[in-house]
Design a protein that fits this description.
It is built from ten helices and ten strands. The longest helix has 15 residues, at about 75-90. It has helices at about 20-30, 45-55, 75-90, 110-120, 135-145, 165-170, 190-200, 205-215, 225-230, 240-250; strands spanning about 5, 5-10, 10-15, 35-40, 65-70, 95-100, 130, 150-155, 175-180, 220. It starts with a strand and ends in an 18-residue tail after the last helix. The strands form two sheets. An eight-stranded parallel sheet has the order 3-4-5-6-7-8-9-10, covered by helices on one side. A two-stranded antiparallel sheet has the order 1-2. It has a single domain, classed as Alpha-Beta Barrel (TIM Barrel), CATH 3.20.20. The chain has about 270 residues and is α/β, with parallel strands linked by helices. Bound molecules: NADP nicotinamide-adenine-dinucleotide phosphate (NAP). NADP nicotinamide-adenine-dinucleotide phosphate binds near residues 38, 203, 222 and 225. NADP nicotinamide-adenine-dinucleotide phosphate (NAP) binds near residues 13 and 15.
Length: about 270
């Protein structure tokens, strides 16, 4: 699988799956050959993800595992304990990528970035990054960090214009990951996506995911269905023309942001 900053370009999103549904989903993804799994402390499913990985028989070294530190755990006293707790639940010695899930409170900002770097130095995380960081927050974090931040996981799909965030991330050496890459289904009905889909004879989901990875952005769709997971993996066997890429980029100017939790969300770019 192609990678960006070492991150496989297609991952398996695990929110909002918990319990048996999560274990089944992760088992299905691994069975189909997906090797990049995205979880978070907030999802309350790290234990299920860990159990599914252990049961799969896939070697730890072949899996790219990502988790995220919850906002409540970003303070100096909680960060490393919460990471140890995540590793215990996941039943692993390290994660491949550790992210700060939502931007810290201003007074916790520097210490959270320091704790993130310490997690990498101690070997508990192989690489580090952030999630839901705006351009000013990415710049501030990159300036503070003593180690490279390789990733910013943000909402990214053909209904939302994230081009400025992507350009600034690139300048900072940060690769974006696309969460809610299908806009939780909304993308599948967009007229531009549907038109390209009909013309190329590919489902709307593949058109949207292909538009994402063709920009060098990692895509993290969640699905509970084997047929959909298989389809999502077919995005590497075709290409969108420059005209079709531009058409979807134009659609993204409608700027329909879906995820913006009150109290956590920053002032978006
Ligand atoms: N960092 C953050 O703050 C943050 C926030 C939100 C999400 N995330 C991550 O991003 C992942 C994905 O985001 P999301 O779950 O919000 O939204 P999403 O992946 O855009 O949408 C999920 C929906 O798409 C459907 N779907 C998936 N593949 C499909 C296909 N090929 N054809 C038709 N429908 C398809 C799924 O239904 P079926 O199950 O029926 O296939 C599900 O209802 C999450 O699981 C999580 O890991 C991160």
């Amino acid at each position: 699988m192609k990678t960006a900053n070492g991150i496989p370009l297609l991952g398996y999103g695990t929110y909002p799956l918990t319990g048996a549904e999560c274990r089944d989903g992760v088992a299905m993804a691994l069975d189909l050959g997906l090797r990049h799994i995205d979880t978070a402390q907030l999802y309350d499913n790290e234990k299920d993800v860990g159990q599914a990985i252990a049961k799969s028989g896939v070697k730890r070294g072949d899996i790219y595992l990502v988790t995220k530190v919850a906002r409540d755990n970003l303070g100096r006293r909680h960060f490393s304990h919460s990471l140890e707790d995540s590793l215990a639940k996941l039943d692993v010695d390290y994660v491949d990528l550790l992210l700060i899930h939502w931007p810290p409170e201003d007074e916790d900002f520097d210490s959270a970035i320091d704790s993130l770097c310490a997690a990498q130095s101690s070997g508990l995380a192989r690489a580090i990054g952030v999630s839901n960081f705006t351009i000013p927050l990415m710049r501030r974090a990159a300036k503070r960090a003593s180690l490279p931040l390789i990733n910013n996981q943000v909402e990214f799909h053909p209904l939302l214009d994230q081009s400025r965030v992507r350009e600034e991330a690139e300048k900072l050496g940060i690769v974006l990951s696309a969460y809610s890459p299908l806009g939780r289904g909304a993308v599948l009905k967009d007229p531009a996506v549907v038109e390209v889909s009909k013309r190329l004879g590919r489902p709307p989901s593949e058109i949207a995911l292909r538009w994402i990875v063709q920009q060098g952005v990692v895509a993290l769709p969640m699905t509970t269905k084997t047929e959909n997971a298989k389809s999502n993996m077919r995005i590497f066997d075709f290409e969108l023309s420059p005209a079709d890429m531009a058409k979807l980029t134009q659609a993204s100017k409608q700027n329909r942001r879906l995820i913006s939790p009150t109290g956590w969300a920053p002032k978006w770019d």
